[in-house]
């Protein structure tokens, strides 16, 4: 069995070819798609977070709205850029969204990806401390966030408060029990995967990963997952961790599918530089008839190693078409691979 969800980047555009013309369109369509995905039997509705772009941004209003409209599907992110986050305020938002959804939040967080603007986190009021990099700052924000959502009191109460306080130090409210175990780290390197395991976070293996061995992405990801699980075991955590990978996978069952994605059948991994010093590898897309997809996906070592698969979707093609794409995978591919 494998959990299968969708991952939306939340693009919108005024292009006549887009069915998602505005931020309002994206938000309402995302809620509708999550409802449809739940009805189809999908396991998760996840959203990428980008700032200064016509894409999904601050996620908690959307996650809360989906939580109020659904009852079973997991609701998450992949990922929130922690360079931009006030971890205390984020803990309040996350607690509220998790309570609204009845404990279905699965928050993917990370250092973030290449940005739309230069050092955009500075516009949000954040800057690395002396001797820190922006990645260090993201990890510092993360550690504060993880600590405060554990629910322990840490703030000294006012002796003359407006409202009566419980005894002792105060914690961030609202507190949602169990949320701490549903935090994921989006890892683009083997080292950050090990770091995430030590802190007891689940792993989202990034499709844009540091090229650390020259091997195909799925092999590098499988090795990253193995290193993560070994670090988890050595850390002595009581529960079993979860691991996800994301892929663009399209089962071609109609002429429309073939027109949109038939040209992706010969897709390969891509190599590029994401900054002056970092060589990265980006994963291929899969697009084929269902029986061919089954054979191809059996050979993807990272998908086989993960317990959760997030299907990246072309959200600008509309709710109905994206629901059709999800249904194709759930109906024709997942059962043949033993995922259903």
TrEMBL record:
Per the record, the domain of life is Bacteria
Query: What's an example GO cellular component term for this entry?
Result: cytosol
Which InterPro entries does the record associate with it? Bact_Lucif_Oxidored, Luciferase-like_dom, Luciferase-like_sf
Q: Name one Pfam family in it.
A: Bac_luciferase
* Stored Gene3D superfamilies: Luciferase-like domain
Recorded GO MF terms: oxidoreductase activity, acting on paired donors, with incorporation or reduction of molecular oxygen
Q: Which positions fall inside the Luciferase-like domain?
A: 9-255
Q: What is this protein called?
A: LLM class flavin-dependent oxidoreductase
Supply the source organism for this entry: Amycolatopsis alkalitolerans
């Amino acid at each position: 069995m494998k959990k299968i969800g969708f991952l939306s980047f939340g693009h919108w555009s005024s292009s006549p070819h887009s069915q998602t013309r505005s931020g309002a369109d994206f938000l309402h369509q995302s809620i509708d798609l999550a409802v449809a995905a739940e009805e189809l039997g999908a396991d998760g509705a996840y959203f990428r977070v980008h700032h200064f772009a016509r894409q999904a941004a601050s996620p908690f209003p959307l996650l809360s709205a989906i939580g109020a409209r659904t009852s079973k599907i997991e609701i998450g992110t992949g990922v929130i850029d922690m360079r931009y986050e006030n971890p205390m305020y984020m803990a309040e938002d996350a607690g509220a969204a998790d309570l609204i959804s009845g404990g279905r939040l699965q928050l993917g967080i990370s250092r973030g990806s290449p940005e739309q603007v230069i050092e955009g986190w500075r516009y949000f009021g954040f800057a690395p401390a002396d001797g820190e990099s922006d990645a260090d700052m993201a990890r510092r924000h993360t550690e504060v966030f993880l600590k405060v959502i554990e629910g322990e009191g840490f703030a000294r109460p006012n002796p003359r408060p407006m409202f009566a306080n419980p005894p002792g130090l105060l914690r961030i409210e609202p507190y949602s029990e169990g949320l701490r175990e549903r935090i994921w780290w989006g890892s683009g390197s083997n080292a950050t995967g090990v770091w995430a395991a030590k802190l007891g976070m689940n792993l989202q293996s990034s499709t844009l990963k540091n090229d650390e061995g020259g091997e195909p992405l799925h092999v590098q990801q499988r090795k990253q997952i193995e290193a993560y699980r070994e670090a988890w075991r050595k850390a002595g955590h009581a529960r079993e961790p979860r691991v996800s990978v994301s892929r663009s996978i399209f089962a071609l069952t109609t002429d429309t599918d073939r027109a949109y994605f038939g040209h992706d059948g010969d897709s390969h991994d891509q190599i590029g530089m994401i900054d002056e010093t970092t060589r990265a590898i980006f994963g291929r897309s899969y697009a084929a008839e269902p029986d061919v997809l089954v054979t191809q996906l059996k050979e993807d070592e990272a998908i086989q190693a993960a317990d959760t698969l997030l299907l990246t979707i072309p959200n600008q093609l509309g709710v109905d078409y994206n629901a059709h794409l999800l249904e194709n995978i759930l109906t024709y591919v997942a059962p043949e691979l033993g995922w259903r």
